[in-house]
Amino acid sequence: MQPKNLSPQRENNLKITEINCTIMMEFVLLGFSDIPKFHWVLFGIFLVIYIIILLGNGIIILITRIDFSLQTPMYFFLSNFSFLEICYVSVTIPKMLMDLWTQKGVISFFACATQMCIFLMLGATECFLLAMMAYDRYVAICNPLHYPLVMNHKVCVQLVVASWMSGLPVQIGQTCQIFSLPFCGSNQINHFFCDIPPLLKLACGDIFVNKMMVYIFAVLFVTVPFMLILGYYIRIISTILKLPSSTGWTKAFSTCSSHLIVVVLFYGSATITYLKPKSNQYEGMDKLLSLFYAVLTPMFNPMIYSLRNKDVKEALRKFLLKFSALWDI
What we know:
about 325 residues, mainly alpha, three-stranded mixed sheet, 13 helices, about 75% helix, globular
């Protein structure tokens, strides 16, 4: 209800504000609409990638559960990491496939908020879970005699639960804060999923505080776990260099190399996306980087861990032999 005795100019300004700052009921994800001729090709590529992610990570979860030689803390973390990757891509790829199929890209206000909140929570979980995996390697290499006592099953479960719960309250609060902003004018999100940077570009008014909160949370959930990982690996490398033989170096480095590759792939693309200065000039690059850490990295992870790990390769070989024997029957 408008207040009485307003001047004509203020009434006009109020009407203009009411028109421009309407409540957004839905958004439109532009995705890859700038290359419409290739949408069927992209649909096929992302469908294959999604299937590979589900199968690759699903097989790792399965073999770490059924193979006795993989009943160790390292593979307990790996199985949880693979489950996380399945959840991570399932937040974005099915919607992206549907948008490529229908060529619409419409997403409701609530669905957009839910997608972003879950994506951010899973991203925070991945950061801390990678840090827990680095801590596991640190204890195994730097304190091998105490490893069974320090990394017992109860401690592993507590670390995994802490990783999953770490970003829950903060990311819910950040999502509520962003979606409480007024969104004026266009409702088109120049991205393939609801993410913070493209959504803030649609917000009206002063969003300086929101941008600062994004940077603070990015530092908290990206930089802090990364510094922990860096600290653990400095200690690991210094311990490895003290080993008497090159054989010991090779064995120790081989247990860490897969994890290091995953850390570099994930943190490299995520840090550039969230911490670099925002500019309309780099919107295409933002989508490419998001595609890398949200889609491609989860596809590479099972390959990295299986191809560079003898225990996983051996367990996979046994599993395939059993599966083929059952198929022959």
